Amino acid sequence: MAEVSVEQFAEEAAAWLAANAEPVTTVKDDGEIIWGAGEFRVSVFHALSFDEEKDLLDRIRAWQQRKAEKGYHAVLWPQEWGGLGLSKQHARAYRQLERGFATPGGHECFGVTVGLVAPTINAFGNEGQKRRFLPRLLTCEDLCCQLFSEPGAGSDLGAIGCRAERDGDEWVISGQKVWSSAAQFSEWGLLIARSDPAEVKHKGMTAFMVAMDTPGVEVRPIKQMSGGTSFNEVFFTDVRIPDDQRLGSEGDGWKVALTTLGFERDHSASGGAGTKAGGTWRHVRATARAMDVTEDARMRQRLMEDYIHTRVERMTNRRAADLAKGGTPGPEGSLGKLLWTEGMGLMSDVVSEVLGPRLIADSGEWGTYAWGEHVLGAPGYRIAGGSDEVQRNIIGERVLGLPGEPRVDRGIAWKDVPK
Hints:
Strand order of the largest sheet: 3-6-7-10
Number of domains: 3
CATH class of the largest domain: Mainly Alpha
CATH architecture of the largest domain: Orthogonal Bundle
CATH superfamily of the largest domain: Acyl-CoA dehydrogenase/oxidase, N-terminal domain
Radius of gyration: 22 Å
Largest sheet: 4 strands, mixed
Strand content: 5-15%
Structural class: alpha+beta
Number of helices: 11
Number of strands: 10
CATH topology of the largest domain: Butyryl-Coa Dehydrogenase, subunit A, domain 1
Order of helices and strands: HEHHEHHEEEEEEEEHHHHHH
Shape: globular
């Protein structure tokens, strides 16, 4: 579409939203949460049954496809892939407008599909792969999961051992992945596998797009302490996939993985009310007001610590987005990821002090016991997307230029590394 001003775009988008969605009735005009209205959502990970989670994803798909009729599902993406090809300012304006309307909310599978895998395919896929995958992923006609971590290769992703062996025009995949969010609902998985064990560990990997219904793929959900089964183990037993599902060149798996993880650590689009994983500052403030603790000097100090952290996180993410200049996020995203996980931990601490026994006693009181899902889920994001320790190493080595960590496996073929 021709370039339009942000103001004109926002006016048209607001009219479309008003015609296609109901206004939010759980917040005031200034964005403050109306205590007791609607559902109180502050969970980090979903604690839903299989059918409930599938229903949520179906509603998210339907909303994404309705937006796709006008290109609002992909404001930044080029028109050839169904987007509008507009600026970050346009995308930010649309996100702000959509927060004022009741939509299905968010889900990690949606974020992985649209925010991680689609941009990675755009970076590494050939033209045929882009035509095949991008339109369907951006509209969520197909959902995708990450097949990265393994039982012995989580934070040290370079140590993966899931094998990919070439057999003519096909690859044979054998091994296991773990912590694969929403694998049980996904049509596709982005897989990083070991294709050359004679190479050093970061060079002998290759990336693939794997259809999750391929014979030999088995998904086993993992029960979490927060109550849900968002995570999964995925097993591959002599899974055959064609070479045209290879993403990037043979041996480029580490580059593909770093690109995907860069998008995962980029939280420049986060910070909005309503659908952010784990809740927002507004949820904390509303809870403190309902518990009548906002006049207590110590609690006011703690609340302001949380508010300041939220603001610093948002500004840091905005700066990282500007540095990326629309391209692949760099190591600056690690700082945003650290701030996000630390912020969720701080939010847990502050809310625990605000609620006291109400946090662990299910009295039926709105907006109290529900915080338990946040407290139980927040520690998980200290590991997801690369542990906090890995983020600090990235910042130290790739941002500050400090010497790398000593590694006993440097320069050694993966097959010769003690395991």
